[in-house]
Sequence to fold (680 residues):
Amino acid sequence: MKRSAAVLPVLVALALVGCRGGTKQPTTVKLGVFEPMTGANAAGGAMEVEGVKLANELYPSVKVGDKEYKIDLVVVDNKSDKVEAANAAQRLVDQDKVNVVLGSWGSSLSMAAGPIVKDKKIPAVAMSATNPLVTKGNDFYFRVCFIDPFQGTVMANYAAKDLKAKKAVIIREVSNDYSVGLARFFADSFKKLTADPAAILAELNYNTNDQDFTAQLTTVKSMKPDVIFAPGNYTESALIIKQARELGITAPFLGGDTWEAPEFIDVGRQAVEGAVLSTFFATEVPITPTSKEFLDAYRKKYQKEPAAVTALGFDGYLVARAAIERAGSLDGTKIRDALLATQSFPGAAGLITFDQDRNATKSAVIKVVKDGKFTYLTTVQPQ
Amino acid sequence: MTPALFLQHLANALALGSLYALIAIGYTMVYGILRLINFAHGDVFMLGAYVAFYGAALFLLPWWASFAIAIAVTALLGVLLERVAYRPLRDSPRISVMISAIGASFLIENVAVVLFGGRPKGVTVPDVMNVRLQLGPVAVMSVSVVIPIFTFAILALLLWVVGKTKTGMAMRAVSTDLDAARLQAIDVNRIISFTFGSGSLLAAFGGILWSYKYPQLNPLMGVMPGLKCFIAAVVGGIGNIQGAVLGGFMLGIIELMAIAFLPTLTGYRDAFAFVLLIVVLLVKPSGLLGTGHAEKV
Fold:
């Protein structure tokens, strides 16, 4: 089943290669959607793809020069796996010959694609990958979200000021660059805020796909922390919190943007009530006219509230589309230059201007799980 | 480490170990009869959990009804798996059957991705399984108490079936020599189907209890537990039912105690199982309770 799905874009790509040999120009612009559709991060990928597809339905074409091109989405599954992600990215640039790559949910997966898009000079726009290393030193990778040094500070501030926590324990997904990075930024800022070099009692690890965390949590319980910071994949995190409550740990849990998936609540149920996380966008506070357009279209189509990363998926598509239009060309380097020149682009999740490291500077939103829903708590502006 | 803390770790380890034991029995039974490692066992485990989930979520059955139906359906799937993937290859070289088993495993996983979707599903845990018990310094969930009881009940039942019943006698005969058993008018196919059915039934038991303890399903959830329980079966002496249970408990205890005492090594958690396998294979290749007999594979 997967094979037949894979063969089709290959055939299309081959046909296009054939065309390019002749005088005929390509008639479509191709956006490669590089996301985890199976494996540990599948829900994250699916939510971003929802946003991209919605944007594609509203804006299905782009004007390049004086010609109108249809935009085709080529969705590949990077299977939540770093090795598979490299293969998938390679396929997008080599076989599918996409003009721009969108994605991926998960910093590790985006980082696997980094050298590949850089090598082929195909610009890539990450939607919610927050690790600084995704775009650092790679002048073809952009992102429409903030980065983890900011996110870590936001949560450390929340822990130290709002919760008045003095001692924290960190539980991180050690095989995930996002989780390890964010944990470090949180730790640095929390130690500074509490003026206590020993404010982090312990940093405990687990692996992606682990299901039993009782050994780590039993250790946590004996340390009696005021707060537990556990950034990581949503299902593992939900299981961690559930098992912590079962062991009798009552300290509040804080996490990052990856928690915001329906599965987090679906798996954690009662246990994740009160869990606090930072994310990109809250439907309760639309920011730009595009926010409203996005929310209306999404609610009409899906009859539910979108996740923040869905809004970012929507934005990634629009930013890429606008850059292609301004570049007036399908050449990767020209599109990259047009992306660099993006100024105050009104996206659904806020205005997008890329800084010198190709990151968007945006405010963070803090949400809490309340009555089985992610509920808006507050907005934190960047310094 | 205080004694209270140690007891809590031990309770955690026993709960995990008994789940491993439950699944390891299935590997060992099939191997005992057919000298076949059923690589699809972990995926049968996954199917069991999904069938129970859909029984409860779609058909709104009470949990015990979906539990019973899921176990029956999964047992039938196990029998079917043997019919389709293994029986036609019974007289082929061992390696062909093994490759067929690996193929069956991939097939089931990928069909499951298409049918159930790649996104994980949250399981509604029955209230009786979700009671928090505080026994002195040790906190456990009722499901963690139920699992070891189940495991030992099933162990006793299996030992009785294999040791005392006519079917069990036939199983032992088939295990000793398949052709000689056939000459004694034993319906070999029926015995093999029975073995696969009961092995899959145990996998379903394990899968459903697993989903009550870790209430999250995804189509690849059987891969790692499958591998680990295979290791447990080999460590205990593959082909030996008590050995599988022993191996399962050992694996659970070693895994959790290693993390408890050496928290910095947590990232290598899955490696502990494989290190244990290597050590046991080097020291006692037939496993802890296995009876050694030279065999060419």
In short: The interface with chain A takes residues 2, 5, 8-9, 12-13, 15-16, 110, 113-114, 117-123, 132, 134, 139-141, 214-216, 218-220, 224, 255-257, 259-260, 263-264, 266-267, 269-270 of chain B (CB under 8 Å). The mean pLDDT of chain B is 91.
